[in-house]
Design brief:
The longest helix has 25 residues. With 336 residues, the chain is α/β, with parallel strands linked by helices. The chain has a 9-stranded mixed sheet with strand order 2-3-5-7-8-9-10-1-11. The protein is globular and about 50 Å long. Helix 3 runs parallel beside helix 4 and helix 5 crosses helix 6. Helix content is 32%, strand content 17%.
């Protein structure tokens, strides 16, 4: 059997994603003041150029931020080689440098800010399993990864994109703090915006280089329940078990938290393993109510702590579900 983490939801293809800046309920002397207030989307790059209506529709539901995700490619979790091109004919338009520029420029006109969030795509696995077998391969991997992310840092600087995510779910590499600090230093030489690392929810507590970044980033696919169709109270209790761990890191590093992704499928088991891809949930009963309750629990539990919230309406969400989620975001009772 594959390990549980091989099924982790890696990208914004999840049905609904969100990321938020948390304003933690700490003693007065430890309060973090969060001035940014964004409502954002993990934007999936399209195969062909936008026609203009897409971003206007996004703006119409209240979004004012997006993250864009180009890819680098790694053939094996133990291979130090990484392939990427900022612009290539085989890329989807929305993931190319040109597409990122047009999307950024078009969204900026609408008052939508951007974060560039490059990912590694690993054949047959996910980035959390990337691990070299010897010192020479580790050195080669970090050399290659530095070149990859600095290329995109330069693009972000050229386009004046205000936020850059320096890595996503690279769990087996992030304990090599000195190497990551060198990456951060290299990025700072070419990029003047804000930096975040998107740590897996099983990883963020162990990272020691948060002080070198502007935000603590979390891919927040925390398990919230053990059974199908949990109640709202059970889901809120599930979040209650996770919050102290996050708050401990916030207090230690005095950095605000950015939820770089959060998502739940529209199935009865949505709260058990939120990281599992929808197409791997074989013969599982659909339930938009279970999905909606997961989001309601998130919004309820983080209400006192949230300085802003970014919400992503991904593909395949029925109109009625979107309307109810918008009601939740506005603090109103949904119609289910």
């Amino acid at each position: 059997m594959k390990p549980w983490y091989s099924k982790y939801l890696l990208s914004s293809f999840a049905v609904f994603l969100a990321f938020g800046m948390l304003w933690w309920s700490m003693p007065e002397e430890e309060i973090l003041v969060v001035s940014e207030k964004w409502k954002g989307v993990c934007w999936v790059g399209s195969r062909s150029p936008l026609d203009g209506s897409e971003l206007r529709a996004l703006k119409a539901i209240g979004a004012n931020a997006i993250s864009q995700t180009p890819f680098g490619w790694q053939s094996d979790i133990h291979s130090p080689e990484i392939r990427w091109e900022v612009d290539a004919e085989r890329q989807w338009w929305g993931e190319s440098g040109k597409g990122i520029q047009v999307t950024h420029d078009s969204s900026k006109v609408l008052g939508i800010t951007n974060m560039l969030k490059p990912h590694l795509w690993v054949r047959g696995s996910w980035p959390g399993e990337i691990k070299m077998k010897n010192k020479a391969d580790w050195e080669a991997w970090f050399t290659n990864y530095t070149a990859f992310i600095v290329d995109y840092a330069q693009l972000a600087e050229e386009l004046e994109i205000p936020m850059l995510c320096i890595g996503t779910e690279l769990e087996m590499t992030s304990d090599r703090a000195e190497d990551w600090e060198q990456i951060i230093a290299a990025i700072r030489k070419v990029y003047s915006g804000k930096l975040v690392y998107a740590a897996n929810f099983t990883e963020f507590e162990h990272i020691t280089f948060w002080d070198k970044l502007d935000y603590i980033g979390i891919q927040a696919y925390f398990p919230l329940a053990d059974d199908h169709n949990p109640s709202l109270e059970e889901l809120k209790e599930g979040w209650g078990r996770q919050l102290p761990k996050v708050e401990k890191v916030v207090k230690k590093y005095q950095k605000p938290v950015l939820f770089t992704e959060i998502g739940y499928c529209n199935t009865v088991d949505a709260a058990i393993e939120p990281w599992v891809w929808p197409n791997e949930r074989k013969e599982i009963e659909f339930s938009e109510t279970a999905q909606a309750l997961c989001y309601e629990a998130f919004l309820n539990q983080h209400g006192p702590r949230v300085g802003w919230l970014e919400c992503i309406f991904g593909s395949g969400i029925p109109t009625g579900m979107i309307e109810n989620l918008i009601l939740l975001l506005k603090g109103k009772r949904p119609n289910w």
